Amino acid sequence: MKKKNYRFLLADLDNTLLDFSASEHYALCRTLNDLGVTPDDEVTAAYSSYNDSLWKRLERREITRNELIRTRFTGFFESRGISADGTAAAPLYESYLSRSAVMIDGAEELIGKCRGKVGVYIISNGTARVQLPRLAASKLDKLCDGYFISELVGYSKPDVRFFELTVQRLPGFEKELALVLGDSLSADIAGGIAYGVDTCLYDPRGKYDGTSSIKPDYIVNDLAPVIDILAPDRNPDL
What we know:
Blueprint: E1 8-12, H1 20-34, H2 41-59, H3 65-80, H4 86-98, H5 107-114, E2 119-124, H6 128-138, H7 140-143, E3 146-149, H8 150-153, H9 160-167, E4 178-182, H10 185-195, E5 198-202, E6 218-220, H11 226-230
């Protein structure tokens, strides 16, 4: 790929800038405890997998966001034979989740080095009532140049309309100088490719093996190399 100096970084939030896995575990354990369910490793791992499958269905437009939020605990409890109130679990979980914001290593440094040189815009498929408090708690709402939550935009990644409506609000936006950074092939990378911008997969566990039909332009295992990708012809501090 030809090297270029990017001016716009469209960065995913969960498990790219914020550690969603840690927040999910915290919120789930608190919720299950409140409902009298033991949050052992097997149950928490099963929920994470179940929840992820629902978000993948949302990306494919097989379910709506409201259906996902309303039924994920009732469906999960039923699938595991857990006698607990799934309807009560949903607001409890969102309340706990909205209070947890754990920064990914290197995220704040990346944003700091971009300040004034590369516009950093957060793009998230999460719900507004959860993500807005997390953005505030982490101070990302002040550190970045803007943020766009799919529930408020009206479309979810990888829908190209999410990107089209988002970039309309970016001053001086140039598609050729934009880079999408995210951990999800199916949402972030596929969406960026569909819109026609360069993409960078954040793959901290090295899961990407190259066999997917979705091909990111760059792959990083931590956030430090993103600086060099953004500005290969400048100094390390942009």
